[in-house]
Specification:
Distance between the termini: 12 Å
Strand content: 25-35%
Radius of gyration: 13 Å
Number of helices: 4
Largest sheet: 6 strands, mixed
Structural class: alpha/beta
Strand order of the largest sheet: 1-2-3-4-5-6
Order of helices and strands: EEEHEHEHEH
Length: about 130
């Protein structure tokens, strides 16, 4: 059963699937700044509280992300998420071409040891990879 954890229209929605131990974040629009970091801090709290090991980032409707937020995610958030128990992260590319470039730029920054990642255009491939079908 899926439980809605957060709904912020125009920003994102976040869901929890306890059967697969997966948190799903669906971004909607430009991603960045305090809204982005607040959501990601809450996701980190849910990783801890629910012993989540998997994260599905549905970025199909995502807009641009600043380089500062990319750096923060890679250098600050991801290490803490791995330390909290996150082992697998699937990212579904944004449909918007400039936003997709942003995701690629972020992905090229140092990979986090202990975190397996999949980048795909297909939400079903991401779910299958995480074992959440």
């Amino acid at each position: 059963m899926t439980e809605e954890l957060l709904s912020q229209p125009g920003v994102c929605s976040v869901h929890w699937d306890g059967g697969t131990e997966t948190i799903t974040v669906e971004w909607d629009g430009d991603v960045g700044g305090e809204d982005y970091r607040d959501v990601m801090e809450r996701v980190l709290d849910w990783i801890v509280d629910r012993d989540a090991t998997k994260l599905l980032v549905d970025a199909r409707k995502q807009g641009l992300m600043s380089e500062a937020d990319q750096d923060w995610t890679v250098a600050d958030w991801q290490p803490r998420a791995v330390e909290a128990g996150l082992t697998d992260k699937a990212i579904v590319y944004p449909e918007d071409r400039p936003a997709r470039t942003t995701v690629d730029m972020s992905a090229r920054k140092s990979p986090q040891p202990g975190l397996e990642r999949l980048f795909t255009e297909d939400i079903e491939e991401a779910r299958n990879w995480l074992g959440t079908t």
